Amino acid sequence: MSEGKGGALVLPGELIGTAEEFVPGRGTYEDSGRIFAALLGHTHVDPQDRAIRVEALHAIPHLAEKDIIYARVDEIKSAMAVVTVLGAATTGRGMPGAPEGTIHISKAKDGYTESLQDEFASGDLVLAQVLQSHPSVKLTTVPPHLGVVAARCQACHAQLEMGANDLQCPRCGRHERRKVAEGYGRVFAPASTGPPDGA
Predict the structure, then answer these.
(1) Predicted local distance difference test score (pLDDT) of residue 60
(2) What burial class does residue 49 get, using C-beta atoms within 10 Å of its C-beta: 0-12 exposed, 13-18 middle, 19+ buried?
(3) Pair 51, 73 in one domain
(4) Does 75 fall in a domain?
(5) Mean pLDDT of successive 10-residue stretches along the chain, which has 199 residues
């Protein structure tokens, strides 16, 4: 068994050490002085405290600070946008339970925002960064690469296209404002959730 990062692949119930050698960590259990793997994964040993743990091979995705995620805008309030977190942008994996999050008006874009109605609309797909994951999910779209990546016309529901200074509807010609991400139109939404309805 390797004691470095990316150690041996072990099965649940497999003996991975003794209490004399290691301190049992996450993903392990101790029985009669012997330490066993509690799940399928790779062993890791912390060289400082000699704690041994097992990192799950197929861990359930969870939110952490600084994560970049996709979210769907559900409601626009005066001071915040209420969203549903769809999944991680880096892995494309859906987020179990579709947790609710918020983007405060001060975290929508750089500078003063008079109204969130000018930055988001219900149904928009946004790329956002997690500021806080617990006890409530708080997000930001301030950096230029974050913001709306897919949106529909509020009049005819056609997919909006990027224009010179705003978003334009190819069907009815309507112009709309959003806090758009630099990568507007390039969406890699989690397969289990997909883009906004009908996209």
Answers:
(1) 67
(2) exposed
(3) no
(4) yes
(5) 60 91 91 90 88 80 88 96 91 80 97 94 96 95 96 95 94 96 75 39
- Both tokens of residue 166? 């705003």
Residues 49 and 73 in one domain: no
What CATH number did the domain enclosing 103 receive?
A: 2.40.50.140
The reported pTM is 0.68
Would 191 be classed as within a structural domain?
no
Rounded CA-CA distance 62/36 in Å is 25
The residues that bridge with 176 in the sheet, in sequence order, are 167
Same domain, 91 and 150: yes
Task: Supply the DSSP string of 112-173, one letter for each residue.
Answer: --S-GGGT--TT-EEEEEEEE-SSSEEEE--STT-EEEE-B-TTT-PBPEE-SSSEE-TTT-
Residue 102 lies in a domain: yes
> In this structure, which amino acid lies at residue 135?
P
Cα separation, 85 vs 137, whole angstroms: 9
